[in-house]
Give the backbone structure.
Amino acid sequence: MDSQKVDMFIMANSKYFESHHLIAIRDRLISLPDDRWPILSTIPFKDPTTSIIVSLLAGSLGIDRFIIGDTGLGIGKLLTCGGLGIWAIIDWFMIMPATREKNLAMLQRVIM
Amino acid sequence: MTKNKLYFILVLACIAGYAWLYLDLNHTISYKPFTVCLVKLTTTLPCPSCGSTRSAESFLKGNFWEALSYNPLGVLLVLIIAITPVWLLLDLIRKNNSLFLFYIKLEFMLGKKIFAIPAIILVLTNWMWNIHKGL
């Protein structure tokens, strides 16, 4: 794929991934055939900032986990008052990396 | 979600659950002044799963209807906490991943609208009932 296109993608979507993954993502995208670009540009990545806001406001109800697609963990949080309150607090710090991890998995499913 | 991560979370959750029940049954924690629920602490309104400890305690003492009237989710939690360690051990002994496969299947099913919408309605109804009861 054209490196200019890839750089544009990286610039537009860098907040969705861990910074240490960006170089590997760039290398992988450059080696990707051009016909994957339309799919790549329409992946609905989850915004880590949205996750943290939801986590702060409704983390005890597990909604932060539901929106990033971890339905099972969301139910776990919902049924246990946010893991006795402790899990909800841990997730205030863990939800952003978890969202970025989900985004990477989503990207990997498309480029693999 | 990987198998090891799920099993680690389940083991931790079971340990925390049993520890919480042990503290509760020994009356180390008392209900009225003590709550760990962040929703209740911030809004003074109960969350959908408030009352689960009281429900679990009633259930373990054999008062099934009292347990349901506190919070039906408490009965569900007792069943989960009773079944999960046995299932985990069986998986460990047989060296298979049936619990992990069940979790993935359950997650997939709950992602479908036909299951998700009734589940959301049930939880919201239970929440409204909790607020009405003033747990």
In short: Chain A is about 70% helix and 0% strand.
